[in-house]
Design a protein that fits this description.
Order of helices and strands: EHHHEEEHEHEEHH
Structural class: alpha+beta
Distance between the termini: 66 Å
Helix content: 40-55%
Number of helices: 7
Shape: elongated
Oligomer: single chain
Strand content: 25-35%
Radius of gyration: 25 Å
Number of strands: 7
Strand order of the largest sheet: 1-2-3-4-5-7-6
Largest sheet: 7 strands, mixed
Length: about 220
């Protein structure tokens, strides 16, 4: 999937080492995970492969790898929890993370039949909270003392957006894989064929069979 600034693709084998650099204790990992944990590349690789969270690499149009987005199926089918981060602090506030999040929401709503996309963001994460407020998601509640960072607990905000709410803004409707006009033309041609077949073949056959029954 491709936007104005970034594009998404699945994680590949060589991405795990870079991924591990983004989640070691740092400001980047604090924003991405709300925690500071050490983990080897192999541990991260196994966690991703055997967990139920899916990931996509975020790249610039010049194919520079700059971050990742994640989506995790929730208890009820059609509900997902989103996450992610832009790994290079020099690229923060450039719109890359916001567009990557919107691209993955496009994917979930338009191609995976998602009903609800949910976010859990720490109140220490200024950028992610601003993204939520700007995109008018529904605030569902506050999780008290949800994250522990910098020697103290931080609340988290739980928010979500439903499929119908997302599509209220026409700008959020992604381009169809098959143009609507083409799909409509296919339906019209099929209906025309079926109506013609009914008149030329099916209906006369029924009449003939009915006449035979009357003779018997």
């Amino acid at each position: 999937m491709k936007g104005n600034f970034v594009k998404l693709r699945p994680l590949e084998e060589e991405d795990y080492a870079l991924f591990s650099q983004w989640v070691v204790p740092s400001k980047t990992s604090a924003l991405a995970r709300g925690s500071q944990d050490f983990a080897t590349t192999e541990e991260i690789k196994q966690d991703i492969k055997h967990g139920n969270t899916r990931y996509a690499m975020v790249l610039t149009h010049e194919d520079k790898k700059i971050g990742f987005v994640s989506w995790q199926p929730q208890k009820y089918e059609g509900s997902y929890l989103l996450g992610g981060v832009i790994g290079d602090p020099d690229l923060w506030d450039s719109g890359y993370g916001a567009e990557a999040s919107i691209l993955i929401m496009d994917y979930l709503f338009h191609f995976k039949n998602a009903h609800k996309v949910q976010f859990i963001n720490g109140l220490h994460n200024l950028r992610s909270v601003r993204f939520l407020l700007k995109n008018k998601v529904v605030i569902e509640g506050i999780l008290r003392d949800y994250f522990f960072l910098d020697g103290e607990y931080h609340d988290a905000i739980v928010s979500s957006i439903l499929r119908d709410e997302y599509y209220q803004d026409e700008q959020n409707r992604p381009e169809d894989s098959i143009p609507r006009e083409e799909k409509q033309k296919i339906r019209e041609e099929l209906y025309e064929y079926m109506n013609g077949y009914w008149l030329k073949n099916t209906f006369p056959d029924l009449v003939t069979k009915g006449e035979l029954h009357e003779v018997e």
